[in-house]
């Protein structure tokens, strides 16, 4: 890294540290301000629920199970059970506020072949879905990457994906038409049909407050998506949604609450136990929707014995949960007020909490009530417009085991196999092999070229190889799609290690021109220092993972 780039790099790191610190401060202030109180939240039985939904959660849409064709439910549910039975769903070791923690839910990524999804510093690799009419690669024809059971399962999820692509488009268009019609009806601030003047004023005030809040948040929320796109301000006209609704992956979640001993209480509203803490979905194309299928099943599907002990620490579902955390925010506070109600009210609350729910809140806001939406088995919900940016969501555990399939349009500019393979070729272009002596040398010693290569070297090692060995390899026992490409990538990486060594030789060579030598040494030193630091972080994570695994084994005995 050039000194200038390096400065920029550290400035960015500092900025992200600062914003992390700022967020922590805000979170603390929020919790302090709240004290023992809880912010109200509304469920369907509460008066004003629909109004709150319309005014503050308009980007959320529920699609009840009857909206999907019967056959699809069956295929999708049996696909989810297959994934679970085959041991494809695993708890991820993710990084939250500088700590390594296991997610409470078990997950798998299914999606376009060669795609990955990065969340909480973890890169997941897709189990490819095989779509109708898909052209098979030549070698794949001879030897499919998954057995037919798994293939069918992934295909069912692809079918669900197709349904979501068209349904979300339709729903969004329909809502757009409705919205623009009601805009005309309500122009000049005249009260709309069935709406009293007072409530229009309330809404306008609310709208204004919301706008102010959004402006404030603009600065707060993470803008870094890893790519050059950034969310347009919310006042921008809605983009052509059709182009955004091309879900390319689904992240499957599974959790059986009876196997979890220490789920965290939702801390701000007292909504109940959380399976997934408050969060925004990361690394999505700005303004793209998310579509979720929810399947609660009465009993834990029987799992096939996983024989291969691969050090993932995943075979024990009855975790002691020492290291488990529901991602996002959350503290282990006592169950708050709502439960203190008496008689039937209490029963009502308990009944409500038996059901799985999705919770929503406006980000950094303690004035707008939260929303808890119960999900019956087979129900779907959509998060559209900029709901994911302006709001956070969490998942509230019900009594039964539950799967969800969460379809997303992930940012893929730096996340596909194609992309990283191209980067590898770019780097290796600088390696010259003398055909006779079979010695190798560097073609160009230009600082920019050397820097570029060292950057790729780091990207391949930390964003792909180590992530794969850490997370992706776990799929290898039932899906071979990534095996060969990753072996090739490792070979490429070894060549890059060789190139670094060659550069070191040039720098150490007394015959190299002094001026160039210094510049090259600088690049090399910076690259090696960064690499060293990164490698140490990975080693620590690895050690942590092994220790957690060993602890689980000991406690399980
Ligand atoms: O399970 C759900 O309903 C949503 C899960 C979720 O928010 C996520 O995986 O990001
Ligand atoms: Fe989410």
Automatic annotation (TrEMBL):
Required co-factor? Fe(2+)
| A cellular component annotation (GO) from this entry | cytoplasm
Q: Where in the cell is it found?
A: Cytoplasm; Nucleus speckle
* Region of interest (Disordered), ranges: 1-25, 174-242, 303-350
Query: Does the keyword section mention Metal-binding?
Result: yes
- Give the record's GO biological process terms: DNA alkylation repair; regulation of multicellular organism growth; RNA repair
**GO molecular-function term, one example from the UniProt record:** broad specificity oxidative DNA demethylase activity
Output compositional bias ranges, type Basic residues: 1-13
Residue ranges annotated as compositionally biased, kind Basic and acidic residues, are: 198-213
Keyword check for Iron, yes or no: yes
Ranges of residues in domain Alpha-ketoglutarate-dependent dioxygenase FTO catalytic: 46-412
Keywords annotated in UniProt: Cytoplasm, Dioxygenase, Iron, Metal-binding, Nucleus, Oxidoreductase
Reaction it catalyzes: a 5'-end (N(7)-methyl 5'-triphosphoguanosine)-(N(6),2'-O-dimethyladenosine) in mRNA + 2-oxoglutarate + O2 = a 5'-end (N(7)-methyl 5'-triphosphoguanosine)-(2'-O-methyladenosine) in mRNA + formaldehyde + succinate + CO2; an N(6)-methyladenosine in mRNA + 2-oxoglutarate + O2 = an adenosine in mRNA + formaldehyde + succinate + CO2; a 5'-end (N(7)-methyl 5'-triphosphoguanosine)-(N(6),2'-O-dimethyladenosine) in U6 snRNA + 2-oxoglutarate + O2 = a 5'-end (N(7)-methyl 5'-triphosphoguanosine)-(2'-O-methyladenosine) in U6 snRNA + formaldehyde + succinate + CO2; N(6)-methyladenosine in U6 snRNA + 2-oxoglutarate + O2 = adenosine in U6 snRNA + formaldehyde + succinate + CO2
Its transmembrane ranges are none
Hey, which family's this protein in? Belongs to the fto family.
Q: How does it assemble?
A: Monomer. May also exist as homodimer.
Tell me the protein's name.
Alpha-ketoglutarate-dependent dioxygenase FTO
